[in-house]
Design goal:
This protein is mainly α and about 130 residues long. The chain has one domain. Helix 1 runs antiparallel to helix 2. The longest helix is centred in the middle third of the chain and has 28 residues. The radius of gyration is 22 Å and the shape is flat.
């Protein structure tokens, strides 16, 4: 994400100035931290068969969205950063990560990575008479 964000921030710096480029990079940083915490939340899911695991998973979920709301909402409310550039950087991380991860997920869900048929696939056989 950093490799994609730096040229985008340079273009924003050229066209809009330092404040917008800084806000964009701040949004990217908040997006990267939030997306990494998504991995933490997902890693806690297999433990969620117990009440303690469910509470940990739910707490991680609430903390992740609380972080995103505070990290973006407080600077926007106080007028510290241009909000559109900051939100663009944050949303750009999620868009880029999903675009990178989607082909792998689709391949894994299709069940054809082993080269054979899926387990639930039926084969019709006809006998010649």
């Amino acid at each position: 994400m950093v490799v994609l964000a730096v040229p985008a921030a340079a273009a924003i710096l050229y066209f809009y100035g330092t404040a917008h480029a800084g806000a964009f990079l701040y949004g990217v940083g908040a997006g990267i931290v939030s997306f990494a915490s998504t991995a933490l939340t997902v890693s806690l899911m297999p433990v969620s068969s117990t009440v303690h695991g469910v509470v940990m998973w739910a707490g991680s979920f609430v903390a992740r969205y609380g972080f995103a709301a505070a990290a973006l909402g407080i600077p926007a409310f106080l007028g510290l950063w241009p909000a559109v550039a900051m939100l663009g950087g944050f949303a750009g991380v999620y868009l880029a990560e999903n675009a990178v991860l989607l082909p792998g997920v689709m391949k894994a869900m299709s069940g054809t990575e082993g080269g054979g048929r899926r387990v639930d696939e039926r084969v019709e056989r006809r006998a010649g008479v």
